[in-house]
Specification:
heterodimer; A: 234 residues; mainly alpha; 3 helical TM bundles of succinate and fumarate reductases; 9 helices; 0% strand; B: 247 residues; alpha+beta; Ubiquitin-like (UB roll); Fumarate Reductase Iron-sulfur Protein, Chain B, domain 2; 2 domains; five-stranded mixed beta sheet; two-stranded antiparallel ribbon; 7 strands
């Protein structure tokens, strides 16, 4: 294993493993969110289960480490790649045939995802797990916060059409990022050949689309029911 | 055909370069791109000016010596050919053609359109060979090699080391070149023995020389004049990672 993680392929391996770990988390998070569409009570039970307890906190730390390592290595690799490209750029550049737009803009898409992530943590994690960590139960009650009532937080946020659009744009950036990132991770690990490449690329598009639709469904559903309070549409 | 050429001129590696515009007239559509540059140089010499320096050798698409970034594409707008195989019929009368050298930190400009691709030689010297004498040409089928393996090895061996992959890659990565060398030897019994050592030493040299990191855009495969597949990059990744994990 000597010098594995200082080599170019080793650094890419870190990107691919952390990326696949984050995709697994997204699938878990999406399944959890979809519960809110079918039963807000059941969703709140999940929120209570994933509060400020040791197993949820340990998972949060591991997840945060995965995300932070992925982001740090994205910066390191981008800086190295820009240096390798050199200061003198082409006056005329044409995108070669068959090269996906997402594959050439992963860093920019990643930055959009990070900005969206900060907003998302402010909207939800701060009002849920963080307040349970930072305040006592009495203080939380005095402040009028309900950290385990995630369904109310979702319903409140997505009744605002501006937030709905911002979240959908964020999810669209995630979709583009995943269409390339997912299959690219397998290519870096070495699980790819002439036969499997189109198959893995197809699976990549399917996974990215499932994740986009799963998250977007919750945004759209809660915006729709905000237009129909009490089941009566105006 | 009458054409306007915007050509990168640079006196030497340290000088600041820039574009100069030239006109060439009465070019036959059947002229090759390099012959068109020969005509331009002939005109420049007659005018007492410095001819444009560009790399070329066999002019048959074999040697990998020609380069040039033409209108945004390595080896020009046509697919699966080198610049020397490009003909003027691919352009229209009155076109403006922008010609630049390969751009990469590891390929410094020597003069005008010629770049130093010695970094590729250094990578090959690090392990792109079989260290023992494997004897003369074997009798056919003396060493049984599955057709699929032989085909993959030959496909990878088509790489002529021109550097279009590095020139095209937004990261200046040499992974396709290294992968083609590693793959062509790893798929044959004579080369298989040193597979792990080869992958490690060639990647280490590639990193040391300042090439970028592959982000799997596939641009190198699209612009490669020999159509080398990035599936070979996946094989290089496998070879390298399994070798490192065994260390």
């Amino acid at each position: 294993m000597s010098n594995l993680f200082t080599s170019s392929i080793g650094k890419k391996l870190i990107m691919s493993i952390t990326g696949l770990f984050l995709v697994l988390f997204l699938l878990f998070h999406m399944c959890m969110n979809l519960v809110a569409i079918f039963s807000q009570e059941a969703y709140n039970m999940i929120c209570a289960f994933l509060g400020a307890n040791w197993y949820a906190l340990a998972a949060t730390v591991v997840l945060a480490a995965g995300a932070v390592i992925h982001i740090i290595y994205a910066f390191i690799l981008t800086i190295l790649n820009r240096r390798a490209r050199g200061k003198q750029r082409y006056a005329v550049e044409a995108t070669p045939k068959g090269v996906e737009w997402a594959s050439q803009n992963m860093f920019v898409l990643g930055l959009i995802i990070v900005v969206g992530l900060v907003l998302h943590l402010w909207n939800f994690w701060y009002n849920m797990q963080f307040v349970e960590l930072a305040y006592s139960h009495a203080e939380i009650e005095a402040l009028g916060l309900e950290p385990t009532n995630g369904a109310a937080l979702i319903a409140g946020l997505f009744s605002n059409p501006v937030y709905c659009i911002v979240y959908l744009v964020w999810l669209a950036a995630l979709w583009f990022h995943l269409t390339h990132g997912f299959w690219s991770a397998f290519q870096t690990i070495g699980w790819d050949n002439q036969i499997w490449r189109p198959r893995v690329m197809c699976i990549s598009n399917i996974v990215a689309t499932i994740i986009f639709l799963g998250f977007a469904a919750v945004v759209v559903y809660f915006y729709a029911i905000s237009l129909c309070p009490g089941g009566v549409c105006y | 055909m009458n054409l306007t050429l915007k050509i990168w001129r640079q006196k030497d590696a340290k000088a600041k370069g820039g574009f100069e515009t030239y006109k060439v007239e009465n070019i036959s559509p059947d002229t090759s791109f390099l012959e068109m540059l020969d005509i331009l140089n002939n005109n420049l010499i007659h005018e007492g000016k410095d001819p444009v320096v560009f790399d070329h050798d066999c002019r048959e698409g074999i040697c990998g010596m020609c380069s040039l970034h033409i209108n945004g594409h390595a080896h020009g707008p046509d697919e699966d050919i080198t610049t020397c195989q490009l003909h003027m019929r691919k352009f229209k009368d009155g076109d403006t053609i922008t010609i630049e050298p390969w751009r990469s930190n590891a390929f410094p400009v020597i003069k005008d359109l010629a770049v130093d691709r010695g970094a590729f030689d250094k990578i090959l010297q690090a392990g792109g060979f079989i260290s023992i004498n494997t004897g003369g040409v074997q009798d056919a089928n003396a060493i049984p090699i599955p057709k699929k393996d032989a085909d993959e090895s030959m496909d990878a061996a088509a790489c002529n080391g021109c550097g279009a992959c590095v020139a095209t890659c937004k990261n200046g990565s040499a992974m396709l070149f290294v992968a083609a060398r590693v793959s062509s030897l790893a798929k044959l019994p004579q080369g298989r023995v040193e597979g792990a050592r080869r992958a490690k030493s060639m990647v280490a040299k590639m990193d040391e020389l300042g090439f970028g990191n592959c982000t799997n855009t596939g641009a190198c495969e699209a612009e490669c004049p020999k159509g080398i597949s990035i599936a070979h990059i996946a094989r290089l990744n496998r070879e390298f990672l399994s070798a490192k994990l065994k260390d």
